[in-house]
Write a structure and sequence with these properties.
With about 300 residues, this protein is an alpha/beta fold. It folds into two domains: about 160 residues, Rossmann fold (3-Layer(aba) Sandwich), CATH 3.40.50; about 80 residues. The chain contains twelve helices and nine strands. The strands form two sheets. A six-stranded mixed beta sheet has the order 3-2-1-4-6-5. Helix 2 links the parallel strand 1 and strand 2.
């Protein structure tokens, strides 16, 4: 319980949205945050409309829980938000993530909140690091999820990254709080579910993955501090002699500032931008994640109209 309270105490006072799916992790997060007198909370939930009546029942459970805790609540179905988002990703996971972020942005703006608090925990972090390791991510991806980050205009907090899934369920059992189970989390169709099952059988591996993520996070912080800041238009001189690790961070920052989605910037796309600047024989006009158009004109890289 001390670990739980310590994690929640780190949340800055003020008004916050809390993303609640109905699962044990998000319900525990809401309950823990509700114990703070200096937080004004607003529950936000997206009904993905993927599980029929079960999705509807999740939304009803969350609405009732918010009412019981006397917390304001916004519940929206996916079909309401989806038409508002231009260039939705084809990948379903990326699409749903984009829709959730759009909803968070709307709620934070409407209610003048500081940002949104998510319930990702230590097991989620280990799964994320392992999934990215399998996919060949470099150190930037292996740092895992940040405890505090900004996605577009939305400030995101993840205070439970040091807390295990079991600790959250034990807490709910102690206070007699129920939650909803998402049956799709057991489906072997999804890679993350398969990794979760495998990690459950290899408990010692979780700690090693968390250590790897922390080490890569420290390296990432150093990289952010040391990488050159690129101008709106830049040429090969700005990256001349810069180590590849720092050059990729500079490229990442430049593309993000032009609207590229953070989750879609692979090392290959960063290397492609660096190549555009360094190799005059490369294609002079290219498209990057998020439909960001980039051109090389007179040897300099700039956004393309």
């Amino acid at each position: 319980m001390k670990l739980l309270n310590g994690a929640i105490d780190a949340v800055p006072a003020g008004p916050w949205a809390v993303a609640v799916s109905g699962g044990a992790d998000s319900v525990a997060l809401l309950r823990l945050l509700r114990g703070r007198d200096d937080l004004w909370l607003h529950v936000v939930h997206l009904d993905h409309q993927t599980r029929g009546q079960a999705s509807t029942d999740d939304a009803r459970f969350i609405e009732e829980l918010a009412g019981e805790l006397q917390v304001s609540c916004t519940i929206v179905v996916r079909s309401e938000i989806e038409p508002e988002i231009p260039r939705l990703p084809q990948n379903l996971s990326a699409r749903y993530r984009a829709i959730r972020i759009a909803l968070y942005r709307r709620v934070v703006a409407q209610h003048r909140l500081q940002g949104v608090i998510l319930a990702h925990h230590a097991d989620d972090q280990a799964e994320t690091v392992l999934q990215r390791l399998i996919r060949g991510s470099g150190s930037a991806g292996l740092r895992g999820m940040a405890g505090r980050t900004r996605i577009g205009s939305v400030l995101v907090l993840r205070p439970l990254l040091c807390v295990s899934r079991d600790a959250l369920r034990d807490y709910l059992a102690r206070i007699g709080q129920s939650w909803r189970e998402d049956a799709s989390n057991q489906s072997p169709q999804y890679l993350r579910n398969r990794l979760r099952k495998w990690l459950a059988a290899e408990p010692d591996l979780r700690g090693a993955l968390l250590e790897l993520g922390a080490a890569c996070g420290a390296l990432g912080q150093w990289t952010i501090e040391k990488a050159p800041r690129l101008c709106d238009a830049f040429g090969p001189r700005e990256l001349a002699g810069v180590p590849a690790l720092l050059a990729r961070e500079s490229a990442r920052r430049w593309l993000l500032s032009r609207g590229a989605p953070p989750g879609e910037l692979s090392e290959a796309s960063l290397e492609r931008l660096i190549e555009m600047a360094n190799d005059a024989a490369s294609a002079p006009r290219q498209t990057f994640p998020g439909n960001v158009q980039v051109r090389r004109r007179q040897g300099r890289i700039e956004s393309a109209p």
